[in-house]
Amino acid sequence: MRTNTNHPPGTQAGALRSSLAGWWHRLTRRLVAAAQSPAIPQALWDATLARHPFLAARDAADVQQLRQLSAQFLGSKQFSGARGLQITDEMALAIAAQACLPVLKLGLHWYDDFSGVVVHPDAMLAPREVHDDAGVVHHYQEELSGEAMTGGPVTLSWRDVQEASIEEGYNVVIHEFVHKLDMRDGQADGCPPMPSRAMAQRWQTEMQPAYRDFKEALSMANRFGGPQPWLDPYAATDPAEFFAVSCEAYFVNRTHFAQEWPALLDLFDAYFLGS
Ligand SMILES: [Zn+2]
Q1: Distance 241 CA to ligand 1 centre (A)
Q2: Cβ(211)–Cβ(239) below 8 Å
Q3: Which of 31, 81, 126, 178 has the most CB atoms in a 10 Å sphere around its CB?
C-alpha cells in the first residue's frame, strides 16, 4: 500500500468499468489460442523507454527481455479502468514495463497469483477506523496512491503513477508490485520467499538493521531538524513498507541508492539479479 498525503481528496471509487480497447487486448484475443503474447509496436516501446529512462538505462539484453516480459504481462493480465478511466495502450504498457522490472530475472511466474490491474484516475479513499485509549472508535478516510492485495489485484492511481520521480526515488508501480513478491508467502513482512536458507538469513541480517537505522535517522531529523533521509518517510511504517519504498529507489535511481545504502544495493542485487 502507498498512502498519499500530497493530493487533495478524490472522490470515492465507483463501480469498475472495463475499458479495454487497445492493440494488446485485440491481439491478445486473437492470439490466445496460439498461446502467444502480442508483440509491442516499436514506436510504442520507444516512447515508453523515453518516458522511463531507468528502463532504457539497462543493457540491451535486459531491455529486450523487459519488452518480452511486458508483452506477456499484457497478454495475461486484465486491466480495468475505475471511475470511467479509459486505459490507453501507453498507460497499459507504462504499467507493464515498470511492473516487470523487479521480475526481470526472477521470472513473470511470480505474478501468477493474480490477473487484475485496476487503475483509478486519482488517489483512492479507503475507509479506516482507529480505537483510542478511551475505547472510542474514530472513522476516517485514508488516501491511497496504490494498493496490492494478497492473492488479489494491484490497484494504482494513474495520477500517482505519472508523478513518479527518479530524483526522489518514488515509483508507485514498482512499490505495489514488489509488495506482490513480498506477499507470495502469504504475508507482507518485508521478506519475500527466498531461494535458499542462506539468502533468507542474509536478508534478515541486513534488512533489520537497515530498517532500524532508517527509523532512527528519520526520528533524529524530525526531532532536531537535521536533514531528512532520502527515502520517503513512509518507509518507516513497517518492514514491508521499508522493503517496498527502498525497492522503488533501488530500481529507479541506482546511483543515489548505492551512495545511501551500499549494503542494501548488494543484497538487492543478490535477490533480484542473482548476482
Ligand atoms: Zn506499501
Answers
A1: 5
A2: yes
A3: 178
The CATH architecture assigned to 2-273 reads Orthogonal Bundle (1.10)
Q: Kindly give the distance from the C-alpha atom of residue 93 to the centroid of ligand 1, in angstroms, as a whole number.
A: 22
| Cα four-point dihedral sign 228, 183, 58, 78 | negative
- Domain-wise residue ranges, the chain: 2-273
First-last CA distance in the chain: 28
Q: Which residues surround ligand 1, an ion (CB under 5 A)?
A: 1-2, 241, 244
Please give the chain's pLDDT, 275 residues, in tens.
877 644 333 333 333 333 344 555 554 444 443 345 668 999 999 999 999 999 999 999 999 999 999 999 999 999 999 999 999 999 999 999 999 999 999 999 999 999 999 999 999 998 889 999 999 999 999 899 999 999 999 999 999 999 999 999 999 999 999 999 999 999 999 999 999 999 999 999 999 999 999 999 999 999 998 889 999 999 999 999 999 999 999 999 999 999 999 999 999 999 999 98
